[in-house]
């Protein structure tokens, strides 16, 4: 029997915990996750019932509700991050993401390790003065008032964060070219949002500061909103592997250089990284649009859109790194209001938003490695399309009893022609049905 743990797996024998996981039936997966302590009896009943959610709850989240849109929820396996093994939930519709991440995490586990860190603590709110009358006077006033404004914001708005060790930390002024020869003034308010993503909190702080800024400076504030380009708090993940085929390492390094230097490739590289990140954000009720915006903006921070991952050889080792802001929460938003998100967070047994962010960075980096390994060896089609065959079969309209035959034929076509499409599936199904309706041949005997 698998060893007992609560949420995180003791790293002594993590391989045993997920051994053969993908081959188990759903009921067996429930049993395994229950043994691991990742799911409770109630969680399993909830999942078994199809994760029913009340429309009344949806009415609380959004407007004009007509129902729910469901995504498959799976578990990515084999991840050991900073020596800790995790059960990581992913809500995603795309075939092969979970399989590729789990397979590559196993490869990483066998050849190396994943380490992570979060650098910086503060998120950013912006107060714009579009047509600044006197920039240098404003600069003097901001300098004079900054610490008082920090104190007032913490006293009147961010006291909940202060209580938890966070809150507003600093205020500074930037100038931004208007594009018409003039300047606009932008005040940056930086705050530690602790375990929340902090968007609503920082927006409220900025709105609170607006009249104070206007009164002291005589300027007119145009708007206040957080920035999703949080270069003041970035998450890093690092994969180090040894004992790999030198030729493969070189190919991965070359593929990485391609994504660093060419924005056309960088976009697809980063999409692949986000294949590993977005599903965790969705499963945990986090704002994936915010993270996407932040990551893409960070990827273009030197003026050219680049990959957010790098792979290089370091002597005998292959070293991969990820660096970008992943600003998320384990409280706030719908993270603890949406029952599935709440269950997903509990499954990972994480203690902080930073820990969740480090998990996302690790899965994103490993997902990227899996894609680069496939792209530089067998190509992406083989693995991806093999799994996608199921979708093509359903897309062609195959009934339950027709599925095995159609899948088998499509696999043969894929092996033979190295490509496959919905039209193949439609054709195979048409042939199958034609053969079934053809009158039986008269017996020759
Ligand atoms: P929130 O408004 O729910 O605030 C978080 C709350 O959690 C606060 O009241 C805080 O006091 C409390 N809290 C409890 N324990 C805490 C802890 N340990 N650490 C920190 N706070 C704790 O959520 P938020 O994080 O301010 O904002 C997130 C939401 O804002 C998301 O739903 C997002 O979609 C939305 N949003 C995003 C953007 C953007 O990204 N551009 C803009 C506007 C709104």
Strand content: 15-25%
Listed once per kind, the bound small molecules are: nicotinamide-adenine-dinucleotide
Instruction: Encode the helix/strand succession as letters.
Output: HHHHEEEEHEEHHEEHEEHHHEEHHHHH
Mean pLDDT: 93
Helical run tally? 16
What is the molecular shape?
A: globular
Question: Would you tell me the structural class of the helices and strands?
Answer: alpha+beta
* Helical proportion, percent range: 40-55%
Distance between the termini: 58 Å
Q: Tell me about the biggest sheet?
A: 4 strands, antiparallel
By DSSP, the count of extended strands is 12
CA-atom Rg in angstroms: 26 Å
**Order of strands across the widest beta sheet?**
5-10-12-11
Low-confidence stretches: 1-7, 10-14
């Amino acid at each position: 029997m698998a060893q007992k743990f609560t949420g995180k797996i003791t790293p002594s024998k993590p391989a045993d915990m997920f051994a053969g996981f993908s081959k188990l039936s759903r009921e067996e997966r429930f049993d395994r996750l229950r043994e691991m302590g990742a799911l409770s009896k109630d969680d399993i009943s909830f999942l078994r019932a199809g994760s029913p959610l009340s429309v009344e709850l949806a009415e609380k989240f959004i407007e004009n509700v007509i129902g729910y849109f469901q995504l498959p929820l799976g578990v990515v396996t084999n991840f050991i991050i900073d020596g800790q093994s995790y059960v990581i939930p992913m809500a995603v519709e795309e075939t092969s993401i979970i399989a590729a991440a789990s397979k590559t995490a196993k490869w990483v586990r066998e050849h190396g390790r994943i380490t992570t860190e979060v650098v910086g603590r503060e998120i950013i709110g912006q107060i714009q003065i579009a047509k600044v009358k006197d920039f240098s006077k404003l600069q003097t006033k901001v300098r004079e008032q900054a610490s008082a404004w920090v104190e007032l914001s913490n006293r009147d708005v961010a006291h909940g964060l202060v209580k938890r060790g966070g809150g507003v930390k600093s205020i500074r002024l930037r100038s931004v070219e208007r594009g018409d020869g003039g300047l606009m003034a932008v005040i940056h308010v930086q705050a530690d949002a602790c375990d929340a993503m902090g968007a609503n909190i920082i927006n409220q702080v900025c709105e609170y500061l607006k009249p104070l800024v206007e009164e002291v400076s005589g300027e007119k504030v145009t708007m206040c909103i957080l920035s999703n380009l949080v270069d003041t708090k970035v998450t890093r993940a690092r994969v180090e592997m040894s004992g790999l085929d030198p030729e493969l390492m070189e190919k991965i390094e070359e593929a990485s250089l391609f994504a660093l230097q060419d924005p056309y490739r960088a976009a697809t590289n980063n999409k692949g990284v986000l294949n590993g990140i977005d599903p965790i954000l969705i499963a945990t009720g986090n704002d994936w649009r915010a993270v996407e915006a932040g990551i893409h903006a960070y990827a273009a921070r030197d003026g050219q859109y680049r990959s957010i991952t790098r792979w290089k050889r370091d002597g005998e080792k292959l070293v991969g790194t990820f660096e970008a802001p992943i600003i998320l929460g384990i409280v706030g938003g719908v993270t603890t209001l949406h029952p599935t998100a709440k269950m997903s967070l509990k499954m990972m047994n994480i203690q902080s938003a930073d820990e969740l962010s480090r998990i996302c960075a690790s899965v994103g980096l490993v997902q990227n490695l899996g894609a680069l390994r496939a792209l530089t060896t067998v190509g992406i089609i083989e693995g991806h399309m093999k799994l996608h065959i199921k979708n093509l079969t359903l897309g062609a309209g195959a009934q339950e009893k027709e599925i095995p035959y159609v899948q088998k034929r499509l696999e043969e076509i894929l092996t033979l022609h190295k490509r496959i499409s919905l039209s193949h599936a439609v054709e195979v199904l048409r042939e199958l049905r034609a053969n079934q309706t053809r009158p039986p041949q008269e017996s020759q005997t």
